[in-house]
Amino acid sequence: MEVINKELFMNSFQYFDKEIVSEIIEIFIDEYPDRIENIAKSLESNDFSQLKFHAHSIKGVIANFAAPEAQETAKLLENKGAEGIEEGTQELFEKLKLLTEAMLEELKVLKVNFE
Question: Is 115 in a helix, a strand, or coil?
Answer without folding.
Answer: coil
